[in-house]
Amino acid sequence: PSSTLGKISIVIYLPTLQRLSTMTFKLNPTETALVLIEYQNEFTTEGGKLYEAVKPCMESNNMLENSITLMAEMRSKGCTVFHVPIAFVKGHNEIGARAGILAGIAEGKSFESDSWNSKYHPSMEPAAGDINVQGKLGLCGFHSTNLDFLLRQKGIKNVVIGGFLTNCCVESTMRAAYERGFQVYTLKDCTAATSVEAHEAAFEHNFGMFSTPTNSAEVTAALA
Question: Exposure check for the chain: N or C terminus, fewer CB within 10 A?
Answer without folding.
Answer: N
